[in-house]
Amino acid sequence: MTYVLVLASAYVLGSIPFGLLVGQWWAKIDVRKYGSGNIGMTNVLRTAGYVPALLTLIGDVGKGALAVLLAQRSVGNAFFSLLAGVLAVAGHNWPLFLGFKGGKGVATIAGVLLVSRPAAALILFIIWVLMLLVFRYISLSSITCAVCLPFILFVTGASWIEVGLGVLLGAVTVFRHRSNIERLRRGTEFRFGERVQR
Fold it and tell me: Cβ-count burial of 188 within 10 angstroms (0-12 exposed, 13-18 middle, 19+ buried)?
């Protein structure tokens, strides 16, 4: 019963739409109606500014980290803790409170890794920043990290089960970015710092 409660709590925690809440509180807007229509940090940045984006990032990273911590304290099993993190990511991507239409999970995955695999989180963060500095596309940075995720987990000593979950998370993240990939292909993707008209 404890396992079910923890996993359910992780999913509900992941479903909290920080981007939507921050957009409504800070800028009095529904971020789903502007830019890409996404509730994640990137669209909040484009539509509401840097401070709301930072608050959204903290919230989305925090719920991934908290889901893993909750599982660690309740059960103490490393695989189960990572599974709880996966459920938090699923909650972010398909939130209970928004008709299962959510974000892309990158920041929540970062929160999961920050607690479960901090070395992997650090390496991926460096990759993310370098890609952003060179190309100025947040989406491209995130897609690159999604592709690298299972390899980074492997080289930092993760188990094969963790690497397998990394493959799953990476594949889902790339799939969630399919509209960004199309805009990158067309040359119409937003660059870092660009704002949308409201």
Answer: exposed
